[in-house]
């Protein structure tokens, strides 16, 4: 595959985490394979995750860190999001990043509509990979929870702004995983990075 511009967003709010380890595994392999790469760790970002009141007319100005995230999304051809699943969803700070940063005029255009009547997406032409960790077994997540978090990201967040397709790599169950299993997962993530996938 030709070299790609890749933006890696580690969406775990902790300073150290399995998501951070995987993000660095991916980044190192991607750079060694010749891809251009930018990486951001959610823990290092300083912003108010609370969108505030309803509507976009009185939206808070973006903090510099959120402006940098959007600049990286604009630059990238491929977005890699690493995140744990907590209570069936995204960590609050990561959800707050999407609430605050994906705004009309930068992520979608409310003045123009798609054939379904939705606002026109402004981040089309980009692909994405979700590398998700959870304690919920993969089969239970798919059969019982109907992969709700993946559907939210694929259709209501990334798909809404034009980032598609979203490929998913799910590692579980983390809580009982052995060092050997985690090393195997790291190798799989590095393989994705080398391919820019």
TrEMBL record:
Family: Belongs to the NAD(P)H dehydrogenase (quinone) family.
Keyword Oxidoreductase carried by entry: yes
Pfam family, one: Flavodoxin_2
Cytoplasm in keyword set: no
Source organism, top-level taxon: Bacteria
Listed name of the protein: Putative NADPH-quinone reductase (Modulator of drug activity B)
Entry GO terms, CC: cytosol
Alphabetic keyword roster: Oxidoreductase
Family annotation (SUPFAM superfamilies): Flavoproteins
Flavodoxin-like fold domain residues: 5-184
Gene Ontology terms for molecular function: NAD(P)H dehydrogenase (quinone) activity
């Amino acid at each position: 595959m030709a070299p790609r511009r890749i933006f890696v967003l580690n969406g775990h709010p902790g300073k150290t985490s399995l998501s951070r380890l995987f993000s660095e595994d991916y980044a190192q392999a991607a750079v060694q394979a010749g891809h251009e790469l930018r990486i951001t760790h959610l823990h290092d970002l300083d912003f108010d995750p609370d969108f505030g009141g309803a509507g976009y007319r009185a939206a808070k100005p973006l903090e510099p860190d959120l402006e940098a995230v959007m600049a990286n999304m604009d630059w990238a051809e491929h977005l890699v999001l690493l995140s744990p699943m907590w209570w069936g969803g995204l960590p609050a700070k990561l959800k707050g990043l999407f609430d605050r940063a994906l705004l009309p005029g930068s992520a979608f255009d409310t003045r123009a509509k798609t054939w379904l009547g939705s606002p026109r997406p402004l981040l089309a032409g980009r692909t994405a990979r979700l590398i998700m960790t959870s304690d919920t077994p993969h089969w239970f997540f798919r059969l019982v929870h109907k992969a709700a978090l993946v559907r939210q990201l694929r259709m209501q967040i990334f798909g809404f702004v034009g980032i598609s397709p979203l490929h998913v790599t799910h590692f579980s169950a983390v809580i009982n995983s052995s060092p050997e299993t985690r090393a195997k997962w790291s190798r799989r993530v590095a393989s994705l990075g080398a391919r820019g996938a």
